[in-house]
Amino acid sequence: MSSLDIYAISKELQGIIGYRVDNVYRDLSDTLFLFKFKGKGPYKSPFLLIEPGIRLHLTEVKYQVPERPSDKIVGMRSHLKGAEVTGIRQIDFDRIVEISLRGKQQYQIFIEIFGNRPNLVIVGDQNRVISALWYKKMRHRDLLPGKEFELPPSRGKSILDMNNEEIKQIVKMKEIEKEKIIRTLAQKAGGGGRLMEEVLARANIPKDKMNEDIREEEFNRIKKATMGIKRDLEKLKPSVAFDSNEKPISFQPIDLITISGQVQYFESFSLAMDYYYTNITPKTSADLKRYDQKKKRLLKVLEAQKQTIEGFEIKKKYYKELGDKIYLQLNEMDELLSTILTARKKNIDWPEIQNKLAHAKENGVPSARILEKIFPERGVIRLNLDSEIIEVDFRKPASEIANGYYQRAKKAARKIAPAKEAILETERKIDLLSKDITVQRKEESISLKRRKRKWYEKYHWTKTQNRFLVIGGRDVNSNVEIVKRRMKEEDFFFHAEIRGAPYTILIRDSSDQKPEDLDLNEAALLAATFSSGWKEGYGAVDVYYVPARNTSFTAPSGEYIPKGGIMVRGTRKYVRGVEMALTLGIQLNKFNASVIYGSEETIRSQSPITITIKPGSVSKGKIAKHIRHIFIEKTEIPENKAKIKAIDLNEFVHAIPHNSEIIKVEYGLIKENSIDYMKSSSED
Length: 684
What we know:
Elements: H1 3-12, E1 20-26, E2 33-38, E3 47-51, E4 55-59, H2 71-80, E5 84-90, E6 96-102, E7 106-112, E8 120-123, E9 129-132, E10 136-137, E11 142-143, H3 164-171, H4 181-188, H5 192-202, H6 216-234, E12 239-242, E13 248-252, E14 263-265, H7 269-280, H8 286-328, H9 330-345, H10 350-362, H11 366-369, E15 371-375, E16 380-385, E17 388-393, H12 398-444, E18 460-463, E19 469-472, H13 476-486, E20 492-496, E21 504-507, H14 517-529, H15 532-536, E22 540-547, E23 551-552, E24 567-568, E25 573-579, E26 582-588, E27 593-598, H16 600-604, E28 609-618, H17 620-634, H18 638-645, H19 649-654, E29 660-667, H20 675-682
Helix pairs in contact: 4-5, 5-6, 8-12, 12-18, 17-18
């Protein structure tokens, strides 16, 4: 980001002033900081992405974060969680942003968008450094924990705030009159080279024109250009520019005449940068790194296995050839060995035996000719069999020695077959892993965005086959909230006939909408499954319903309603024997996916995979992980698989009433990319 970009984003981020820090994360690549905020204003649970040295903007992209945060992130959370944003500003039109917060103490976060070692520094009371990406003693300042924080040296006044005389003083300095104006402005006036190019282009001055050649009238045009840029910055017009191959090449907060070709406009500068970086940043997740490392290890194993087989082949051939050579000279070997053993039996000493054999060798005796040397202390002799030098035990017959080599050859041969099978298995693993890597790369090429939660997702909820929304309370407070704030006279109120059940309502837009029996049954299902009956292991419960106007929090005279209780008047209608079984599915959207749950028939019509559960003994957290794993494994389309992987585990947990067990998994009932299915998804 340039100074101009930072000016624009600082202006845009004024919308999160008053929000509080809900959490702080660092992504798996350890390059991005993600600040989650909560508050009332133009944004709903916004995420601020900070990549020191590169960028700073709100993001809708969903980034993977470690299950366990680093010590640095834990420390940041301990200070910043709950702190309120009180200000955001760019410092001196430089590439430094300061975020001020009020929490346990007064905090400032300084973000550097420049340099080879950009920093993110958290400063507390008395301007003392609490945390930083890195610490160092420098020429102009020290950056150390507990020490007073100092900003880097200022780069000077922005050209946008200079008057004609100030610009002229910079350009007309005697010692730089032979320099190009673009270089002078980029070095001497705050704003950076990109802004200076735009200023000169708007002033119609060639950027390579020498300082000494700039005329008075051209200084007037420069000032006029800077005033025009300042006017444009009052109302941002963010865009992304593309090259001839439709690849993003730049982002800009306003229209720049230095940008030519196709551009796409965005509602906010954050959205423009989100789009740009999503489309130009190569993605390498922890999963892909792990796959690549595993493949490298398997390739090393494969190479070692091939070398092992090659060794077995060499041994097999070598030992067989030795056996053959011994058999070709079997008589000579037997005669030599017999001569040695006979001489020893006659107590002839070794020097004499060696002398006699050497004499026989000189006289051309065939059995002595193959002898090279005797090693009495080791009980072996060295032989030369057709230029092959071997050492053998002179106490064994030649045939036994030959058979020994043949046995070694057979032993080596026996090891070749299983070694080849091992190679085939390793190659199979590499092939499967290569496919996994291909799928993973496809998944990671998909742009995922953080899903914006619907208002009703804070409750238990489902939608019936006729698209009626049904919501149920999660606790006493939400029970009261649903009935007091959400329920209208034309709605229906449902309650399981059991102690400990959510207030449940079927919402109608008007009294003209008539829910059918199947809609009423599905509302009763939500009321039953999220009651205490699930926890107690019931197989079914009865559920009654009444028009919403028949309910009240006010008791008749002389009667008492406990806190959270409700008075129901009039005739109750019943849905008898509502089975304790709930079906989960996945709703796929353009950039993300979400968990849906309800009756088997309804979820089956909307999700390519359905999983039905009933009360059981497996904890909510454990079965939620298992259900998510099934959805991921059963999904074939990489794009959809990536979307499901990105779903927060808590979505699965919230869709499960209590400890459960899986009773049915159905797959392929509708096509994953069917038009009807995608239509039903987009309606939400």
